[in-house]
Design brief:
With 91 residues, the chain is an alpha+beta fold. It contains two helices and four strands. It has a single domain, classed as Gyrase A, domain 2 (2-Layer Sandwich), CATH 3.30.1360.
Length: 91
C-alpha cells in the first residue's frame, strides 16, 4: 500500500491509496464516521477496478484530518486484533 496526499488543508485531506479497493476503503470510511469531528468521510474510485481509490476526510476544524485518520486506524486495529483472538478460539 502506498499513500499519495493529493490535497491537504487544516480540515480537509484527499489521499490516493495505491493498491487497495472497496473492501479496505469501505471499512475505513465507516470507522471514520465514528469520530465526532468528522464532517465528511468517503472515497471515490473513478473506473471501478482499474483506478486507485481516493479517500476524502473533512473535519469540523477541532481536529486535523491526519489525526482523525490515525485514531480511526488505531480503533480498527484494536477491533481486528480482538476478532483475530476470537477466531483462534474456534476449533
Amino acid at each position: 500500500m502506498e499513500l499519495n496526499f493529493i490535497e491537504e488543508s487544516d480540515n480537509l485531506v484527499k489521499i490516493e491509496i495505491k493498491g487497495e479497493n472497496h473492501t479496505f476503503c469501505n471499512i475505513l470510511r465507516k470507522e471514520l464516521w465514528n469520530d465526532k469531528n468528522v464532517k465528511v468521510a468517503g472515497y471515490d474510485i473513478k473506473r471501478g477496478l482499474t483506478d486507485n481509490p481516493v479517500l476524502i476526510i473533512e473535519t469540523n476544524g477541532k481536529e486535523k484530518p491526519r489525526q482523525v485518520l490515525k485514531k480511526s486506524i488505531q480503533r480498527l486495529k484494536k477491533d481486528l486484533d480482538e476478532f483475530k483472538k476470537e477466531i483462534k478460539k474456534i476449533k
